[in-house]
Amino acid sequence: DMCMICFTEALSAAPAIQLDCSHVFHLQCCQRVLENRWLGPRITFGFMSCPICKVNELCYEGLHKSEAITTPGVRFYNDPAGYAMNRYAYYVCYKCKKAYFGGEARCDAEAGQGDDYDPRELICGACSDVSRAQMCPKHGTDFLEYKCRYCCSVAVFFCFGTTHFCNACHDDFQRMTSIPKEELPHCPAGSPKGKQLEGTECPLHVVHPPTGEEFALGCGVCRNAHTF
After folding, report:
1. What top-tier enzyme class does this entry carry (predicted)?
2. Active site residue 127
3. Is residue 173 part of a domain?
4. Is the pTM of this model over 0.70?
5. Count: domains in the chain
6. Residue 66 belongs to what domain range?
């Protein structure tokens, strides 16, 4: 049989391994897939699934169970990891190489241009502390988060050494940065691209300066403790 990853050599042509799902691939091909990891800025774990049957080789634990996980018949029944990765977005900081939380994944999907990015601008809160945010007494600066300057979303990108963007506003940064501050939407302002939202409730559930100013949300773990 041919290796279903490289499609160029028979399995007998090189050392091969069998996954728990019973499918067999070249060892080197599996290593290359793991080294290449995910595509685009957002962390995903599809690369760790069997290329044939898509059975995931990872084990997960610790996510608080919700109805989206415990209700039989729903998409993520008994799949807390799939639920978390579908609902939330995570990225790798260019400076410290640690993963950090980047808000809800819907902002990523609404942007529609996730593959066009500069990895040097993916900076976590601890490495982009431009507003001298207060250090969390419990977690330090490891989970420091910022608000997007142009809407009420968690920032993912840190550009020009001064400005935090969510994914959607970053994809349209030339237009967003050219809008005079007094013409920017006021809170609640949402993705995509600084859209004025109805109502008075901020999506981030915090009181913050007007749109167009930098603002540190503080420790993401403590701020979002009720979510997990």
Report:
1. transferase
2. no
3. yes
4. no
5. 1
6. 37-225
